[in-house]
Each structure stands twice: as C-alpha cells, then as structure tokens.
Amino acid sequence: MSVQKDGQGPGKLRVVMAQLDFLVGDIPGNTQKVIEATRRAEQEHQADLVVFPELCLTGYPPEDLLLRPSMDLRVADALETLRGEHLGPAIIVGAPIREGALLYNAAVAIEQGNITGRYFKRFPPNYQVFDEKRYFANGVDTLVMDIKGVPVGITICEDIWSEGPVEDAAAVGARLVVNLNASPYDIDKQVRRKALVERKAFENRVSIVYVNLIGGQDELVFDGGSVVYDHSGVLAAEAPQFSEGLYPVDFVCEHHCQPIPQPAVAEPSLEENVYKALVLGVRDYVNKNGFKSVVLGLSGGIDSAVTLAVAADALGADRVRAVMMPFRYTSGMSIEDAEAEAVALGVQYDVFSIEPMYDAFMKTLAAPFEGTQPDTTEENLQARLRGVLLMSLSNKFGSLVLTTGNKSEMAVGYSTLYGDMAGGFDVLKDVPKTLVFRLAWYRNSVSPVIPERVITRPPSAELAPDQKDEDSLPGYDVLDQILNLYVERDLSADAIVAQGFDRADVDRVVRLVDINEYKRRQAPIGVRITERGFGKDRRYPITNGWKSGK
C-alpha cells in the first residue's frame, strides 16, 4: 500500500520516467545523476517510483568496456552508493550484473537502502547496431515485485519486442509493467515503438511504462519519447522526443493500474525530428569528448550550409568557425552565399584562398605529371588542400573538424579521401541528399539562414569548370531511391530494375557502392538517422568477389 503524499492515498502510485542523458563509462558521474534525479523526483513530483533507462549506470552501449576486469567492482560500488543514500522513492536502474561466470544486462530495484529485486534481460539483441550477445547471457526468470502495494513487472528493452517477458509478467499478476530502454532513433522508430507498446498493453491487459534513454553516443542518437499505455492499449502519456527531463505519471491501481491521461504531445514533422536528432548528436559528441569548438569548410553549397546551421544550433555561434576556401572554379555566387550564411548565424568566418598552395603543389608535381592530361587528380588536390587547412586549424585551436558529406555521396564515393572526408564527425553522413534539401527548407522555416538559391540551384562540387553533380551521377531523386533499395533494403540489382529503374543507372550505382567500401571505412563517424547507416549497421568486406545481379 502506497504512502499518502499530497492527496495521494492507498491504491495510487506516482511513477516518474527519468528520461536522461548518461555518459558511457562514467559510472560515478552516472550514479550521481541517478541520485540527483531521484531527489528532484521526490521534491518536485512526490514520486513513489523512479524508472531509469537501460544500463544507465554504465551508459549505453558500453561495448568492450564491459570486458574490463574492474567493471564488476565499479558497478558494485555504484550500487552500494545508491543503497547508502536511502532515497525516498523506490528506483529501478539499469546495470551490468555478473552472476557466477555470466554477465547479464540487468534492472536493479532499490527501496529504502535495500536491493529488493534484480531482473536479467531475457532477449539481448544481436542485429543492426546491437551486439549484446558478445557480452550478455540470456536471463530466464520473470520478476514481478510489490512496489508501494502494486504488483509491478520489470522488463528491459528487447524483451518487449519479443514474445514471453510481458506475457509471463502479466500471467503471474503484474498490473503494471515497466520497460527500461536504450532504443536508438531512426526516422520511423517512434511510430513502431508506440504501435508495439499499444499492442502489448492491450493483449496482456496491463499498463506499460516505457522509459527510453536520451542523448548522443558516437553515431547513435537516443531520442527519449518515453510513453505510457493503459491496459486497453490507449496512450496515456508521452514525453517529448529529444528533451531530457523527469516526467511524472499518476496511476490509480484497483482492478487495473490505470494511468491518469495527460495532454497529447504535438506530432513533429519528419524534418523537425531529423534536424533535432542531428543537433543532439553533434552537441553530445562535441561536449562529451571535450572539444571547445568546431570548424568546417563552408562552400556555398547546401550540404555545408545545413551542417553549419546544425552546428550553430547545437553549440552556439561562439563555438563555430566557418572557412571559405575559394579556388579559380569557385563561383562568385558561392562566395556571396557562404558569407551570407555565416553572417545570418553569427559564426566566426574566414576566407583563405587555396590558389597559392595549389600552384606550389602543381609546380612540385610538374615533372612526374609531364605528358599527362588533367583529370580527377587535380580536382582531388583541391579538396585535399582544403582538408589540410581545416586540420591545421583543428590542431592549433582544439576544434573538431565537421565534414559535410551526405549519405548519397558516401554511398557512391563522391568524395575525396584525405580531402573533404578529412575530419572527426560527419553531421550528414546518414542523410540522403534529397532529405538534405528538405532539412534546409525546414531550418529556414524556423528562421531564414540559408539563401534560397543555395537550395534551388543544381548541386556542384566546383572542382572543374561548369561542373554539376548530375554530370557524374543520376539525378538525386533517382539515386536516392536506388540507394534506399540497395543499401537499406538489400534488394539485388535485378530486383531494383524490376521495380522500373533503368538498368544502366542501377548497375552503375550498385558498382559504385560496392567499390567504395574502402572509402567509407576511412570516413568519420556521423549521426545515424536511418535503419541502416554506414557504420555498425552495414559491414561489408572491402576485398571480395561478389558479383551484383541476382
């Protein structure tokens, strides 16, 4: 039976969803964050139970830190610290727990200084970006525990996507099921999550509290979006995506544990959600890794314009430096537009011509190049000189270089190794070119910072006279559809052609994707926003004899 607090009586339970951002590996810092959040949840929300995300004490994913010999000791110290605080509300935290020779992804319940329950995740995932079976054994038991007089079942992330854990908890009397999550963002993920939790709640006649992690971790972004569904499968509460905070939900627990409905959260557009994911990914990567600032090459094109806007929105204008590095092929329009973008966003802006450096290189290379015709070698030299300038500024001032390549370019190798690929973080790495255009329009709808002609004119690398991207590639509307089918859906070349695409376009694109794996392995990481980004999701051999077709 719950303790009465500010009008709360027997049969009532106030659950606070701690949708928070944790730092991987910082176990003492994460533990302190749990303590501070629990105290706030008690003081500000009179919480009975505070639910934290999956593996919150280590951060997610801890990867091979789990193999460190001292991991068990550090986690044990953290749990002892939490016990010693004698916190008022009950808490459920995520942590790796070793039992015997096996390590488990666990949820630990602590009440009044005592560990009152442990649950081991039954379905560690091993697909896409997940490789939990590398570290964790499968749990086998169901846990339903009495929290303030309410039978509460505990599950972790993938358990709710599988048959068994929620069903078993409901079968032994749970009226409320909590699910601790570290579920990374992709474009359609929240829709899929909500449909799943709705179905599980309805089928098992239990209310479900789904608490999700928030924050950026290398290429992954966790978007929060924690939800509560009642036993009829009706959405009762939803925390906003990309917003860290403590979100309380009241339950009246009689025959069922019924959440008191809250006002609906406005449904964001796809462009708004993706843009927020990019901003969060950049902010956390820069701040968690201790960079003071960022620097990027501003070309006057759309990719660098969107990257600049994201960086300024993520970090503030005073931590962003934009550099225009013109050459003889750089149009006056590009120079004007780059300056306009920098001024609109209020960032530091510099112009350094690469012409003298290019001439010096070509003089040195005159003898070995004698008798040859200009080709992509000279074009790539321009990109590499720009990369050297940016990396020099990075070294001197401690700034992280943001690269500006998009997913379409990364897919087909439309980039220069040690040139425009030189840097530490690629903001648009998983953003197809057609979506880059939509993000530019979206950002301008908030406040106009990108000149309209940057969005409407044909894209060009400006490495040769009158150069256009579509001179070398199919139109981006076609290219992105082919790439989606081949890279993200794994369709064969023949199957893509069968959907109505030109055979020559398909064969060319597929070949470019296949032969440029070596480039992608050397590219910086970037924010993942799709179900299949270039990184942990897609691991193809560089050296192979696979022939495209069937």
Automatic annotation (TrEMBL):
<feature type="active site" description="For glutaminase activity">
    <location>
        <position position="121"/>
    </location>
</feature>
<dbReference type="Pfam" id="PF02540">
    <property type="entry name" value="NAD_synthase"/>
</dbReference>
<feature type="binding site">
    <location>
        <position position="380"/>
    </location>
    <ligand>
        <name>deamido-NAD(+)</name>
    </ligand>
</feature>
<dbReference type="InterPro" id="IPR014445">
    <property type="entry name" value="Gln-dep_NAD_synthase"/>
</dbReference>
<feature type="active site" description="Proton acceptor; for glutaminase activity">
    <location>
        <position position="54"/>
    </location>
</feature>
<feature type="binding site">
    <location>
        <position position="183"/>
    </location>
    <ligand>
        <name>L-glutamine</name>
    </ligand>
</feature>
<protein>
    <recommendedName>
        <fullName>Glutamine-dependent NAD(+) synthetase</fullName>
        <ecNumber>6.3.5.1</ecNumber>
    </recommendedName>
</protein>
<keyword id="KW-0436">Ligase</keyword>
<feature type="binding site">
    <location>
        <position position="519"/>
    </location>
    <ligand>
        <name>deamido-NAD(+)</name>
    </ligand>
</feature>
<feature type="binding site">
    <location>
        <begin position="297"/>
        <end position="304"/>
    </location>
    <ligand>
        <name>ATP</name>
    </ligand>
</feature>
<keyword id="KW-0067">ATP-binding</keyword>
<keyword id="KW-0547">Nucleotide-binding</keyword>
<dbReference type="Pfam" id="PF00795">
    <property type="entry name" value="CN_hydrolase"/>
</dbReference>
<comment type="similarity">
    <text>Belongs to the NAD synthetase family.</text>
</comment>
<feature type="binding site">
    <location>
        <position position="409"/>
    </location>
    <ligand>
        <name>deamido-NAD(+)</name>
    </ligand>
</feature>
<feature type="binding site">
    <location>
        <position position="404"/>
    </location>
    <ligand>
        <name>ATP</name>
    </ligand>
</feature>
<comment type="function">
    <text>Catalyzes the ATP-dependent amidation of deamido-NAD to form NAD. Uses L-glutamine as a nitrogen source.</text>
</comment>
<feature type="binding site">
    <location>
        <position position="189"/>
    </location>
    <ligand>
        <name>L-glutamine</name>
    </ligand>
</feature>
<dbReference type="InterPro" id="IPR003010">
    <property type="entry name" value="C-N_Hydrolase"/>
</dbReference>
<feature type="active site" description="Nucleophile; for glutaminase activity">
    <location>
        <position position="157"/>
    </location>
</feature>
<dbReference type="InterPro" id="IPR014729">
    <property type="entry name" value="Rossmann-like_a/b/a_fold"/>
</dbReference>
<dbReference type="InterPro" id="IPR003694">
    <property type="entry name" value="NAD_synthase"/>
</dbReference>
<comment type="similarity">
    <text>In the C-terminal section; belongs to the NAD synthetase family.</text>
</comment>
<keyword id="KW-0520">NAD</keyword>
<feature type="binding site">
    <location>
        <position position="127"/>
    </location>
    <ligand>
        <name>L-glutamine</name>
    </ligand>
</feature>
<dbReference type="InterPro" id="IPR022310">
    <property type="entry name" value="NAD/GMP_synthase"/>
</dbReference>
<dbReference type="InterPro" id="IPR036526">
    <property type="entry name" value="C-N_Hydrolase_sf"/>
</dbReference>
<comment type="pathway">
    <text>Cofactor biosynthesis; NAD(+) biosynthesis; NAD(+) from deamido-NAD(+) (L-Gln route): step 1/1.</text>
</comment>
<feature type="domain" description="CN hydrolase">
    <location>
        <begin position="13"/>
        <end position="253"/>
    </location>
</feature>
